[in-house]
Amino acid sequence: MHENTLSASQPATSTTRIAFASFIGTAIEFYDFYIYGLAVAMVIGPVFFPNDDPAVQALNAFLTFGIAFLARPLGALLFGHFGDRIGRKMTLAASLLVMGVSTTLIGVLPSYEMVGWVAPALLCLLRFGQGIGLGGEWGGAALLAAEYAPEGRRGWFGMFPQLGPPVGFLLATGSFLFLSFGLDDAEFRDWGWRIPFLASAVLVVIGLYVRLKLAETPVFAQALKSHQPPKLPLAELFAHHSKPLIQGALVMVVCYALFYISTVFALSYGVATLGIPRPQFLGMLCVAVVFMAAATPLSAIAGDRYGRRPVLIVASSAALLSGFLLAPMLGSGSMWQITAFLSIELFLMGATFAPMGALLPELFPTSVRYTGAGAAYNLGGILGASLAPYIAQQLVLHGGLAWVGGYVSVAAAISLLAALTLRETRDRKLA
């Protein structure tokens, strides 16, 4: 009698706990990732790359930004291997720890003036560590939500890890905004920018506590009972599931391009070129990211009702058209027009991003799901984001803002074509 009562009550409790755990983990990890992106746009160049030309400093800083995106697929494959062989729970805890330690150590790095070339070398190494950790994070968090989701609500539960990024971004932006009001430029450059990195240590302890309280997903536990996990999930993925891997990576491109052009590049351009005060632009980004958070549940609900494919087709088409707004709105110098543009782009980012929490796990069988979903997600990051701020900076220097808008439209077109080649996955069984 007791066992029947327990089994009947356990699923509701588990899904609530899993939804929160998948959300809080990605919120912390993306906070870590975003504070670096914001620091790149404001302070990393002068602190670690001495040069009289601010444009050269910005380009060097943007290159370190891209290093983590190159590391992320490696992290996805590394943690995916263990996630598909030994389980989701401990693998997720390990990825969070790697990310948190790397971020905290960036906060105590000496500047170039103190130790010379060692400073940027260590920065690149820790940035690589950030990428390894985040590469293993998202796939596992999405699997926790999707593999626990009730029938017909996989899109809704897959939304919770997708809510982590906008919340993480609000925390990151809010922390820098708070520091901007309390410190002058010299204090911020000398030591103030380090505080959000050091605060990551506290957040990681919270995240680890939540993650270590999790139970293994029932889908993975059932798979272990029925057959042995593959000895090398990566080999099985490439041998039998390369098509969904490529499709998943390409459909992710627009999400990354929209986000990092609208945040990292736009912040750098707005402050350095348009002369908008940094606190004011950060406040505009805080307003815009609320639209991203609002689009996430709306898109997830639509994905459960109409399917992942039609939602992605509509959102990617709108993103393609939005590229034509970049030059007139971002280049206007008007606070209202720039805020409106940022809000449009981040709303579309949320609309394209939300279905991924269900779609990417649905593309792969249980035996390679962690590896496949994580690899597709992070390969999309290489294509859509790793060099996006750097390319945008080059485009605006040599062609103008209209070329940056064209970059957004091309990225959206790539994802649109990939979505058109997908088969609907909404009703696919995960077990």
What would the principal axes of the Cα set say about the shape?
globular
H/E element sequence: HHHHHHHHHHHHHHHHHHHH
Which bin fits the share of residues in helices? Answer: over 70%
Radius of gyration equals 21 Å
Give the arrangement of secondary structure elements.
Layout: H1 2-48, H2 54-85, H3 88-106, H4 112-115, H5 118-148, H6 154-157, H7 159-182, H8 185-192, H9 194-212, H10 218-226, H11 233-240, H12 242-272, H13 278-306, H14 308-322, H15 326-330, H16 335-353, H17 356-362, H18 369-386, H19 388-398, H20 401-421
Helix pairs in contact: 1-2, 1-3, 1-5, 1-7, 1-9, 1-12, 2-3, 2-5, 2-18, 2-19, 3-5, 3-9, 5-7, 5-17, 5-18, 7-13, 12-13, 12-16, 12-18, 12-19, 12-20, 13-14, 13-16, 14-16, 14-20, 17-18, 19-20
Question: Which tags fit this structure?
Answer:
single chain, disordered N terminus, 20 helices, 431 residues, mainly alpha, Growth Hormone, Chain: A, 0% strand
Describe the overall structure.
- The protein has a single domain, classed as Growth Hormone, Chain: A.
- It is built from 20 helices and no strands.
- The chain has helices at 2-48, 54-85, 88-106, 112-115, 118-148, 154-157, 159-182, 185-192, 194-212, 218-226, 233-240, 242-272, 278-306, 308-322, 326-330, 335-353, 356-362, 369-386, 388-398, 401-421.
- Helix 5 packs antiparallel against helix 7.
- The radius of gyration is 21 Å and the shape is globular.
